[in-house]
Design goal:
The protein is α+β, with helices and mostly antiparallel strands and 112 residues long. The protein has 5 helices and 3 strands; from the N terminus they run H-H-E-H-H-E-E-H. It has helices spanning 3-11, 13-22, 29-36, 40-52, 72-111; strands spanning 27-28, 56-61, 64-69. Strands 1-3-2 form a 3-stranded antiparallel β-sheet. The mean pLDDT is 88.
Length: 112
């Protein structure tokens, strides 16, 4: 799944709340209805969309259907963030070095 697709899927506030509710582990539809505060048909529709996109897996448990998150789309997010983390860390390292130089300059100015 492309990162853009992943972010578009999570851009919907209801789907995002469902994913957040599933972050703690497997849940039944009724639990998700209470967690996201929309009706069951809405939750079911979003679960179908999330399932088709590869975000959630469904496991039957008797009459219940239990939903859980699949790791693949979140790995795509991690891969995307990793590319930017290198950029951020490099900039933060340069900022840290500049601060250290400035503090060193101030300390040597105070000693004279």
């Amino acid at each position: 799944m492309m990162q853009e697709d992943v972010f578009q899927m999570l851009a919907d506030p209801t789907r995002f709340r469902i994913v957040e509710a599933l972050a703690d582990g497997e849940r039944a539809v009724g639990d998700l209805v209470r967690a996201v505060d929309i009706d069951q048909s809405g939750v079911s529709r979003h679960l179908r969309i999330l399932g088709e996109a590869g975000f959630v897996a469904m496991r039957p448990d008797g009459a219940r259907r239990l939903y859980s998150l699949k790791p693949e789309p979140f790995q795509a997010i991690e891969d995307w963030v990793r590319n930017y983390r290198k950029l951020w860390e490099g900039r933060l390292d340069r900022f840290d070095a500049a601060l250290a130089r400035r503090q060193g300059e101030r300390q040597s100015g105070e000693e004279t």
